[in-house]
Design a protein that fits this description.
It comes from Apodospora peruviana. Pfam families: Pyridox_ox_2 (PF12900). InterPro entries: Pyridox_Oxase-rel (IPR024747), Split_barrel_FMN-bd (IPR012349). This is Flavin-nucleotide-binding protein. The chain has one domain: Pnp Oxidase, Chain A (Roll). Helices cover 24% and strands 27% of the residues. The longest helix is centred in the C-terminal third of the chain and has 19 residues, at 246-264. With 276 residues, the chain is an alpha+beta fold. The protein has helices at residues 27-35, 86-93, 150-164, 178-183, 207-210, 213-218, 246-264; strands at residues 23-24, 40-44, 53-62, 76-82, 110-124, 132-146, 184-199, 222-225.
Length: 276
């Protein structure tokens, strides 16, 4: 029996409006973009600031209750930060939900918006207005609460460490000592909804430009693939390990190959809709 693909609900604030054929709402696509992005941008409102706050943070999606859950399953987002940072303090101070028979309780936790973006190529067209990027972007909306359970906190710290380099948790000094546990906070974000927007393909120009022979002969058009490359490891000043660990080199080569394959091959394929 085919497995049903789960999707996030389309809310007014999460629905892709412009070029909506590029919108994606299935959990697997959105979670995959989030988990493969080295840095997330987390936005929240600080009551004492006139402007919304945006922070670059490290995070990863997973399920403490169901560790074997896949990307297409319902997952939480875990964010790693310093114990006394502004975000962590706000999350601890956020009031708990209260409800009555007549008034359902709102979701508990500090409201957050989380975004992630991969640039996969420069799309160079005949006119400046038609230039674009091949890209994969995702946005999540959820409510954050601090993780207070030690087992869940350790699990989340390992999850986030393994997202940087698989095998690194066991390849370093673990478990964290008391000072490290005390200085580190983990937020669990319960996701309310989310969406992704993806652009793949080649340049798309207007018909009147495509009919201009002189323009076609003068202006180069095409895609310049763009992807992250993990370079050769450089040993630190007090490193005494002669060889780069196998898990690190394997991950580096695999990640570089996957990134190149996506940018140079998969991201250049035209989708069913060829809207600009």
């Amino acid at each position: 029996m085919p497995r049903q693909e789960l999707e996030y609900p389309k809310e007014p604030f999460s629905t892709v409006k412009r070029l909506n054929d590029r919108g994606r709402y299935n959990l697997e696509t959105i979670h995959g973009i989030i988990n493969s992005c080295p840095m997330l941008h987390v936005s929240f409102q600080d009551p004492i600031s006139p402007f919304p706050v945006v922070l670059p943070m490290i995070g990863q999606m997973g399920s403490f209750e169901r560790p074997s859950a896949g990307l297409g399953d319902v997952l939480d987002l875990y964010l790693h930060g310093y114990v006394s940072s502004r975000l962590m303090n706000l999350a601890r101070q956020y009031p708990s939900s209260t409800s009555s028979p007549d008034t359902p309780a709102p979701p508990s936790g500090l409201p957050l918006t989380i975004s992630a973006t991969h640039i996969d190529g420069l799309v160079l067209s005949l006119t400046p207005n038609s230039h674009s990027y091949n890209y994969r972007s995702a946005i999540l909306f959820g409510h954050a609460i601090p993780v207070t359970s030690v087992p869940e906190k350790l699990w989340a710290m390992e999850l986030i460490t393994e997202s940087i380099v698989p095998g690194r948790w066991a390849g370093s000094r673990v478990p964290p000592n008391a000072a490290e546990m005390q200085s580190t906070s983990i937020l669990r974000v319960r996701i309310a909804t989310g969406s992704a927007k993806i652009r793949t393909g080649t340049p798309h120009d207007d018909r009147h430009d495509l009919d201009d022979k002189m323009l076609l002969e003068r202006v180069w058009t095409g895609v310049v693939p763009a992807y992250q490359v993990l370079g050769e490891p450089v040993a630190g000043p007090y490193n005494k390990v002669e060889k780069v660990p196998g898990y690190l080199e394997e991950y580096r080569l695999d990640r570089n190959g996957d990134n190149r394959q996506w940018a140079e091959v998969d991201a250049i394929k035209e989708p069913e809709s060829k809207a600009k």
